[in-house]
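FW: tagging you since you asked about this chain on Friday. Here's the raw sequence from the shared folder, copied in full. Didn't touch anything.
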Amino acid sequence: MTGKIRVAVVFGGQSGEHDVSLRSAQAILRHIDRERFAAIPIGITRDGHWLIGGDPLKELAARSRLPLEPELTEAAADLKQGAPQRLLIPEPILAGSVDVVFPVLHGPYGEDGTIQGLLELAGVPYVGCGVLASAVAMDKPTAKRLFASVGLDQARWLAFTHHEWHCRQDDLIGQIERELGYPCFVKPANLGSSVGVSKARGRAELVKAVELAARYDRRIVVEEAIDARELEVSVLGNDEPVASIVGEIVPSREFYDYEAKYIDSNSQLLIPAPISEEQAETVRRMAIEAFRVIDGAGMARVDFFLERSTGRILVNEVNTIPGFTAISMYPKLWEASGLCFRDLITRLIELALERHQEQRRRRSR
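HL: got it, structure written out here
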């Protein structure tokens, strides 16, 4: 391990995307270049304890509702023997025992700026967006307002708190029906992987969908349903981000929900997306603009709708810690663009170290 860069791959966490995070970490640990990097797996349990040493991925996977990918079972981490230690704070990270952190924590308490703030305080480089971009992208209403500020087209939407829903439910239902209509999509304001997302076709389904979303967040977003194709593009870089080729999701179900993403294997990923070059260039340009308006760094996957009836391209959301599973678009799009999984991981780590060095230079002036 002498001379290798020590990379802590942090996964699990307390969000509804805990199980998906394990699959992403599994793929990263499998593909990381072990000639250059010493991979140190660090798991976070659902109750917020840090598992360090041993094989925390195996321990968390034993209680996961989403099995690990069988083709990625080969151990790729530099593991210590024995059971993992269960800690309340990440002592090896805060004590400087790692050189860089690769957070693979999808959703709240990992993708929303919280762990990024901890790492900033500790002075530890980390892969991906900083505190501001992470928090903004995770909070759908805030991100949507920023997209609107630079003229990025998007679906109509409304947001409200669960408290507001209980206090004036009839008023909000009326507003949704007037401004958005049915069908519409109901989502937690801060979550991903389609967890807690429902399609409401009428008032009864709307009420049920809001109550489901409220299990995951105190704030709820309702969006108009667009008859559209779903496009995705991967962004990579710091001050000079670049966009991959464009891919298309063809869900196996009515929409690309959790089941269609991770359980049902019949969803299709079309790479490249069968769209015109002009449309592809527009999507790439809008992806970089969305990345820049949130002050992104390192990586993001930007999702779009291509409206069938009009050809309008609408930005949906930015994911600052996209999936790295065997079926995830982020690495697949870069592979199709000429950057293999191993080299993508290497480039992300390099970008993290470059950004950290630039921050240190500014602080020392």
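FW: The radius of gyration is 20 Å.
HL: agreed, and The domain at 137-152+227-343 is CATH 3.30.470.20 (D-amino Acid Aminotransferase; Chain A, domain 1).
FW: great, closing this out.
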